[in-house]
## 1
Amino acid sequence: MVRPHEENEGLGLPPELVRRLIDSVTKVDRDAIPALAFRLATTELARVSTFFEALATSGEVTYEGEDRDWLLSLTSGSHHSIEAVSLYNVDVGRHHFLTTDLGRRYLAEQARLCDRGVRVRRIHVLDAADAHGEELREVCRQQRELGIDVRILNPADRDEVHGPMRDIIIFDETVSYETTPAAETGDDGPIIVATRLVLQPDWVRRRGEWFGELWEVATEPFDG
């Protein structure tokens, strides 16, 4: 069941933050800063406006490329649960997301959540039967030490669940964070071409049910 928006139900954004934004914007003097900086400020204002418009009207917003701020903010702001489906080639394999600076910050924030009693679950979806390497063993061991509940989904088990495998994270059963990797073009592995946030309750509920199906057929990390 999707949790209600306990903290924000019936309320707008914090008035002090809205006033701070408006005050800051009105203080920007195009004659007092370089033209390039003014163009940057204009672009950022348009981006922020588009973000809020999309959330308010469609409950969905897309970022072209690999996001950083959304991921860390959603993680640190979660109060109940995080459920992640991690594609091997994106997060552990050649792309090595979980070993990047962003990946390490993401895991460190999850460790803090686990210490506060937030349940964090992750399913590593393998892309080949021979992907049971030492690298994945170490990843699972490290995440378990942080308090993350980890399982592995083998290619042979995929027939038991419906739909294509996707790299997604469900925060507090209310926000679905979904990344789209590009086709691999070289030794560096896939890159993220788009990141999408979806707040639509029915969509998030279906994503949660899909995660539950995967969790049931996934197995505990291998030993030995």
Note: Residues 15-57 form one domain.
## 2
Amino acid sequence: MSRARLGSRLARALSASLTRPTIVSHRVNAAPASALRASLQRSTATAAAAAPEAEAATQDTVNLNFYCPHVIVAHQRPVQSVTVPAASGLMGILPNHVPTVAQMRPGVVSIVGAEGEKEERYFVSSGFTFVHPDRTDICAVEAVRLEDIDEEAVARALAECESQVAAVSGNSPAEQERAAVAQIGVDVYLAMQGALATSR
């Protein structure tokens, strides 16, 4: 047999093996309904027995991680509660909070530590908060203690940003970029002023 004819036969056989439907017979042993009900009842009873243990294992503190690119504010620190300035509004985080992700706007992160400790307040410019079952991660672009902020310096910076916004003329991409950057400064410094006003 020539190599060409042999190759043709092999090709047809291979094609047939790839396209021929393969039928596999599976025999399923159907469990009686009574056995199925008994199995479900055992599962329910096991879950009910485990519930008190799960409740006892719930956390009574929030394990807080608070990070910035240049500094670590808190690492695996147990606290009673945290409040963050989410884009949708202030969000309080207590132990066993539902897992969630929240974008932060300029505002104040408040940390209530152990009983008897003074509440700590940090101004953040932006960032994200990630609430996990076992911890809460705050990732901020900038964070500074509220008491360390110079109110007069904030007023000067706000006035400068407002003047930059007012000075923008034209619709060129460069002008629009300058206006956007200056407006971000206005938003941040206004939020900073508001935070300082409420802390008096």
Note: Helices lie at 3-19, 33-56, 151-167, 173-198.
## 3
Amino acid sequence: YYVYALSPLQHLLAEADTWTGSEGVLRRMKALTCVLQFVCLEVFSNSSGNWSFHLKAADALLSSLVETRTKYLAQGSPDNSERELQDQGYLFYDDHLVIEFLLGAFTWLDIIAQISIRAKPSSHFDIQIVLENCNIKLEHLFGCQNWALLLILEASKLDDWKRECEKNRRLSVAELVRRGTKIETENNQGLAILDSHRPSQRQIDSSIATEAKILVVAECFALAAMTYIHVVVSGPHPDLPELQDSVSRGMGVLRTLADQKLLSRVVWPVCDIGCMMSESTQELFRTLVAAEDAADTAVRTFSRAMEIIEHCWKTRHDEAGNVEWFSAMRSVGQHILLL
């Protein structure tokens, strides 16, 4: 069934360059919806990594949707009936909602791919421009505010820059620290704003306090970003004071999310923070995530993230070197999208 469904999609994508006008946008929307289903199928079926193939296929289709969304927001919807709009080549309001969702979904996937396996970013659109110009609010789709994810993206760019400089033997430690400090400062400013809006525990426990939960998820990603920055600047050494601080703060937020049964919504932060646990705190971490790990029998991304964390700890315990999630994942031959 998989091959049967994939073949017509491949033929459809081969014709994408001929699609024009509003009809072309609608075809791209349908194709991207199919691609998104394939990505989810690969990620949640314990696949070895074919999801990245589908993400690359989606990449070229997204620029047209970015352009359509930008024009729509700039011009607004004409004051005509839906039938008249269709006759004039306009898209319906519901079509624009679908475009908003697809841009948000693939932006999210692109970011998570970069910070999961160091995947190359999209070559057809700039994520920051998409989020700002297309008015995409990722917290409404995935529970995490845009600013936190953009800072994680900055940490990823710093990671890429550092590795490129090391490859060419031109790394300036002073410049690395300067860039890392800049991202850390912005992250701390974001965390301070979150702290000023922190709800009471009663509000967090309320089933209707969606905004409160969004703040906690954003804080979790922001603290994971802080851990990522320290790993890039100082190396994956859990005993460093700066890493111990960000990991300890991250544990506090993960504990709150565990109480809300939301840990499965923050798989990358769990993996990022978990890999940097010092030996003295590893058992506490295992206890914290045990219930979520045991419950993850269908999706499996959480359990696979825990396998990466355990491998990271074992490598360190065996004195085989200090590693982070990228190295640990590569070592066990995994290609996991940490959703």
Note: Residues 51-75 form the longest helix (25 residues).
## 4
Amino acid sequence: MEPELQARLNSTSKQQMVQLLEELLQRHPELLTEMAALLSRIVEKEDKDLRLDDWDEENIEEVVILPSSRHPAAPPMDLEKYRQRVERYSERLRQRESVTVITTDLEELLFEAEQRTLQYDYYNALGIYAIVLDERLKERNATLIRLLDHSMDEVIPDLATLLSEASSSLGYDSNVTPLLSKEERQHWLTRLVTFWLKRLDNREIEEDLSEILLDMIWQEDIPILVEMVTNELQRLRKGKSSTIVDLNQQYRLRVLERFLKELPYTKQE
């Protein structure tokens, strides 16, 4: 195409282009069939490209970027109302409120944590996750335990990514400390180890939780984990029967022994 003609076409409005095509067809009606076929192929190609773009967006692994100078951390919010909301679950169950209603409320709460993560509000998102986990560890009600376990199983991958990044300075601008302080990180580790020990019979979740622990610990955290796991090993060994083979107990022993061997000793602060 001549450069001058191409430049004029590029500056032509949609209405002018339609008028041009109409006049061209009036003068050369034999072009109608060919133009319709060309237009159909162009539309099909654009639709295919759009579908491919949509597929690519859906299959791109989400990358979490922690707060930086471009995404400053949101100020801590008052989480007490969230804690009270979760602590009422047990009482609501005792009053025979529908489990479905409570499950929906819990899902909304965890969805808020997810949305806060997407909005770079990592600290408060972790606060919501902590409240739910703390309620699970209190073991107030068997039904509530199952409900909380199921809900936490669904969000463990998101929580794993968030805790890994929040415990590291790699996701930040240089010379910026991790989101979690030493005390906060160790509190999270204690919380997760306790939850992990209660879930050892669930092998899939057990592996996820142990990976989170190994990923987020620093060298100064290792004694805390060693003490907690060693105490659990001693408890299991004391309760071990010399005559009856308990396969679940043997599995728990192997998991804990393996975990101690996998603890790193090179991570420096």
Note: Residues 54-71, 170-175 have pLDDT under 50 and may be disordered.
